[in-house]
Description:
With 522 residues, chain C is mainly alpha-helical.
Amino acid sequence: MEAAIVFYGLSFFMTVLSLGVLFNPNPIMSALYLVLTMIGVSLVFFMLDAGFLAGVQLIVYAGAVLVLFVMVIMLFDLKREVYTFSRGFFTRLLKVFTGVVFLIILVKSFFLVPETKELLNSSTQMTTKNLAGLLFTEYIFVFELLGLLLLAVAIGAVALSRIKGGTHAE
Amino acid sequence: MGSDIVEISINAAKALAIFLMMVQIVPMLVWVERRGSAFIQNRFGPNRIGPLGLMQLIADAVKFLFKEEFLPDKKRRLLFLAAPIIALIPGAVAFGAIPLSVPIHVEIFEFLGQSWGPYRFAFQSVELGIGIVFVLGISSLAAYSILLAGWSSSNKYSLFGALRASAQMISYELALGLSLVGILLIYNSFDFAEIIAQQQGSLAFQFLGKDIVWSFLPNWGIFYQPLGFVLFFVAVFAEANRLPFDLPEAESELVAGYHTEYGGFKMNMFYIGEYGHMLVSSALLVTFYFGGYNIPFVTPDQVLAGVESFLGLSSTGSSVATAFLLHGVFLVKVLIFLWVFIWVRWTLPRFRYDQLMDLGWKTMLPWALANTILTAIIVFIFRTQWV
Amino acid sequence: MNLLSVITFLPILFALVVWFLPNEKHVRPVSLGLSIVHFFVSIVLLVKFDISSAGLQFVEQTPWVQSAGISYFLGVDGISIWLVILTTFLTPITILGGWTSIQKKTRGFHVSIFVLATTMIGTFLAMDAILFYVFFEASLIPMYFIIGIWGGKNKIYAATKFFIYTMLGSVFMLLSIITLMVLAEGQLGQMSSSLLDFYKLDLNFLPGQFLSTQTLLFFGFALAFAIKVPLFPFHTWLPDAHVQAPTPGSVILAGVMLKMGTYGLLRFCLPLFPEATAEWGWIFLALGVVGIIYGALVAMVQPDMKKLVAYSSVSHMGYVVMGLFTLNAHGLTGSIFQMLSHGISTGALFLLVGMIYERTHSREIKEYGGLAVVAPIFSIFFIIVTLSSIAVPMTNGFVGEYLILMGTFMVNKAYAILAVTGVVLGACYMLWMVKKVFFGPPGKLIKDFQGKNLDLNKTEVMTLLPVVVLIFWMGLFPGHFIKYTKASVDHMINAKQGYYLKIEGRQKKVATIKYKSTRVTR
Amino acid sequence: MLSSELLHIGLNHYLGLSAVIFVIGMLTVLLRRNLIVMLMGVELMLNAVNITFVAFSSFNQNMNGQVMVFFVMAIAAAEAAVGLALAVTIFKHYKEIDISAFEQLKS
Amino acid sequence: MNDSFLFAVLLLAPIFGFLFNGLRFKNKNYKLAGAVASVAIGVSFICSVVLVIKLVAMPEASRAIHVHFYNWIEVAGFNANAAFVVDQISAIMILVITGVGLLIHIFSIGYMSHDDRPSKYFAYLNLFIFNMLLLVLGDNLLIMFVGWEGVGLCSYLLIGFWFTDQEKAAAGMKAFIVNRIGDAGFLLGIFFLYVQFSTIEFSSLNTLATDLAASGPLGWSHPLVLACICLFVGACGKSAQIPLYVWLPDAMAGPTPVSALIHAATMVTAGVYMIVRLSFVYMAAPQVMTIIAVVGGLTAFFAATIGMTQWDIKKILAYSTVSQLGYMFLGVGVGAFMPAMFHLMTHAFFKALMFLGSGSVIHAMGEEQDIRKMGALKKAMPITSATFTLGWLAIIGVPGFSGFFSKDEILWFTYASTQGSKWLWVVGVLGAGMTAFYMTRLMCLVFWGKSRVPEGTHPHESPASMTFPLIVLGVLSVVGGWIGIPHVISAILPGHPPNILGHWLEPALATANLITTSAVVEWSLMGISVSVVAISGYFAYTAYIVKTDIPEKCVKAFPRLHGLVLNKYLIDELYFGRIINPLIDISKGLWVYVDVNFVDKLTYIASDFVKSIGRLFGSLQNGNLQQYAMYIAIGVVVMLSFILMG
Lengths: 170, 387, 522, 107, 646
């Protein structure tokens, strides 16, 4: 019973936060809302028995990626935006409409799939050990590839950001 | 949180107690710090108020309360206020996850005409199977408080301080995480309790098929992971922004770094956050490398048996007694490390920022990787049964 | 040995030779010599051509794109023999024409002339639809360069218009070819694009219905050729192209390239779609007549000599198309003869206009006057060629037009009567120009050239002599020329249903296509 | 009135949540003018996908889902890094991070 | 000597003359050029005489020498081969052409003495003779057509001989174009005949036509009738009849011997010859015959009226030619084929004489052509005026002279033939009267009367080379009449001289069937016409010699009529105004509106359309990232909805 409450609370909380990300004119605030949403997501992982993933989510997303975002926002010293949304009322309307239609389609398509069985909590297979096992046997190639990708991105990011020119308006 | 009212209330009380314990330690540590630094610098330190200056803590607290509040203009006020709170939260939550002692087992007892079933109370505010990952995750959130503080006080120096601090924290988080990998390899589990459980008794390991026992050494993590310990120890200093690494709020250059604008109670909150983080770090140190709440060469069961025979209390009473005994042991170890923190602060000079970064990326990280690989190899060689 | 391939691709060889000539000054005489050699080679073809047979001769067929059944299939018969000779005859004259007028990049010019010759001869000899299409399109490119690079003021506009106009038309043709190939696969069991297989096809035809396959295919081809001819509504590219093209460009454009359109009609439209031609032929007859009168009328008011001659060739080609669609022996022979004679007389006309332009750098008729006094020989040649172009008997123009008019008369008297007025109008605008340019008191231009001798020099006379000889030879002894086309034309007329060209001479073994459905004789 | 079906949290609930988060992320990308907020929108979408992965992996007792989350996270981090680096360069040149600033980049 | 050699020499001699002079056209030596040209024509004259002698030797029935060189155009059933025939009709024609031609060549040697391009002139003249021979000797209609157009071409070249002058060049062009209109009609006639009889040989045509005529009268839409009409249009074009006569008066721009040869003796008579050649075909279409008669009569009367008011000597002779041709067509129209041929021959003689005479007058007067500045040249130029008077007597039809016999025969046939009508005879007689008037007017103003010659010029008699042809022609124009004395006159003359010409032509021609009338009627008609001629002659004499004020009075009496007739009933202006200028305007309109604006604009519209489509799609790529993202989203949504729906 309380799992439902927690879930609905959490999902409501997360929806509100993401809307915050969308609607808040101040980028810093939207970044912080995003941090909270990430924490919400790690909680969801936790509810889905993916403890390790929750932690990793916290470390990777909340801890590093979004810190990057916040740092960049601070670096640019972005104030509250005058125009937050894209130009053109009709295009905006069209975008929102597309979004809504997409949501409806997604939700409708969920019910096409037959209901899966009960969530088994903490069953034997769902341990981090098996996760690591899989990761280093079956997906070893992809794992190495990711390593390379991250290396490349690191170098890329450094190269990109070394371009001359100040970050603040002279 | 437990199934019935008793369990819930006790758990809540336990969590509150642990949180208060963390908060209360801070003024004590401040006192210790001031006295310690004075002792190191061959001077007296606060001794006017109350015996040995103990009342100084209360004075400081009162001082912080009545300091004038500076607030930036409306736009940044929210973040300005949020920063100190965020600084507080990770420390408290992380500390809650660390097992301070053996879990207490309470048999069925009658109370107010109702029989309350057997309870098991973990001696920590929340019992998580994925201890390490959770703590690491939470501690990584600490960076936000610094960033927000630096940014919302809207002056260049604090901004720079904040950027430097968060950059430092993130880079050392890397080294922190990697150094723990050695421990994980050895103890094969994320759960703190399990790690501590494996550090009982005296040092015993298999070496080329034979079991070797060195009885003169306790079965602590440090002996398995000496290099890991050193790396962790240094990384923890960086994480907590303690002296060798406290460049961001170094008085001489950046005035007070990111909390120049803060005064009063908000400043106090930052202190709590800082010292809280210090507390958590030393608790982790103790848990991973110094056997947590184990008394060297003695397993908690032997202690339980000893207490029962020595004090003759009922089983719940004796488990409570052993829990608090081991908790005391744990606290002693933690205090020792806290002293080390303070001791280091007042002895080592401050790093330059580039040295700081070089240390973090060019020495700590490679060593951590080396340690991980080495441990992995050894574990692989020793664990597999060479038939 | 395979004569046709030699004739087709010899100019390419010449182009290479000219391209790698060390000294720029040698380019002109060498290319002249080579083109004359090429002419004599084609004379060999004429000599060895067997007049009596109506089938394809000197056939060369080797598979080119195996899967689509496209073969490198060359063959010559009564219809195409004279057009090949005309091309080889006009090329040296074009080069002679460009002797003084082309000064810059002469090497490039002669190469493009040779490439143009190859593509044109290729078009006339190709018996495979795709090969025909390739040559038909390829001929546009060198012409585009000739107009584009060596042309007059807004040459680019004219060149592009010419290119795109023709290209647009030939797209429909390609569509029709492809449909035919697919039909061939359906009916003959194997996709093939050789014309002989197309003749075997049985295309269903609904009289009166525009949307029946045969009619659509017919109009697909006809549109491409109508633009090329150019027939009345599609002719606007011709005057621009001619006015901007250099003299040799105009000569070869008017001399041979317009014939590709009419040859196409003769080779593709008439035999492939007999019922459609019979049914819709009247449109082309009407357009021919309109073209004649329209061309003549508009030519009458042209201020520019070259435009006048351009419109006159629209009118003459109107005759040819009319002759084609009379579908009787006189009309067809007349139109083939007229193709040949128009090639020569209009080619010569453009040469002459070019020559006088060379001297006075103006083509405005009203600026001229009294040229005959200053340049007698030039005016004699001009008047002879004018006579040929307005179809005075004893010149080549008359024979062609007479036969066409008679053929048209047999088919539809009204059109014939209208077309005959074309003869009168032709005389009007040509003689009006002759009067304005040659006779009367000396005009503005001529006064400036009082001293200098405006008359023709040696090379120019040498260029025009063969043309004049040919004009009178064709006028007095047309039999020599008609006897070559007689067999083919008769075959085309009486074998209207089930028209098929058998292959003459020693025939290399070619994968014969299994012949599934016999043609249903209607 | 709480129908049992609603109370009992099934796979579809998680999918629903992830769908909502995904759409909000998409709308952020589509609507917001600030490049960095757009990147955040992308992060949101990726996280929504992560939720779906984890939900499927836990409901179907199959670890592959979680492995995929790992990879998605790695890629998300990479993408954020590059995105932000680009944002930095753009900001340096145009002095503003509004998306309309670099419309001139079109051919 | 066999026939083909004779024919070859006959035809090729002029060609040789043409080539010889043509190639040396810059040469100024007119004596050499003239000699060569005359010798060439002399040779062909001798050949034609030999041919005629051989012809006479042949039996009456089949008097024709056929020669076939090669088949010219031979396409599926239609073969026009280069074949020539000399029979009774063409015998006369070749004799006239080569004979009169020779005389004119000799005359023009003198005439062209101080011209700067004599050899070019003689080359054209020889070419003309060659073409005329082609026309006359042609065995089929197509060869005749070749000659027909060739002659037109030569007249164009010769009229426009002094091309430096704009009007002369324009006159040449006008002549050629008007001829060309006639030739177009001729072509259509050939087609009609070929479609009907699928042959174009004269012999076969005539026989087939007679069979067709035997089978009953033919409706108007019958190809044969249409053919005759078209051929008649061709004849009008060539022989300057009513609608298409405008080019002849302007043709006087050419040198006078040219006018003599082309516009008097040979070319203009080609039309008559063609109809006479196809007499049986025409007999098969009586309704066309009546048209021809009416047109002929009208032209005769109408041209005569204009002739009366002209002041230029050559214009007067030109209009008299038109009117005499009108008579010939009148004769042919009523079926008097033989008298028409006879009048053609006699007209050739006296009209050539008069033209040459006027030539020598102009030559003497230093290129002066206006008769108002002449007068009393009888004394200065005795031979010219003597021969001229012979010509004058012949043309007005003084009995005894050639003109009388031929014209009278025509008038008699007009009256008597079933085809003709009384009214036509009246028109004919009036025409004859007017001819008498303007010819005597000419004689008075030029030769008799007072001399109005301006001081500068003092006329002198032309050299022998010019007067010798005049004398020969003078004799011919007198003697010419005697070979065809009509039956009724010969009856009263001593020795009844037979109608040589009549017998000669009779087998080859169709003749109209005359209504049976007594000789008295014929005599009375002849009397009437002679008296009309005499009266008008006297009246002209008095008007221009005795009382010279009559002409002014007449002019004042009917000023408008006189004005109208003076400038040729404004026919030229009519043609220009109604036909030529509108045509030019139409073609300008066609060129500017249809060609440039309409068709070209279509292509521009097409290209603009394509450009606008390009721009439309271009706007999608406006660099706005979010818009691209939106398109992606829409795309996904649409796809998904299809999947779900589908």
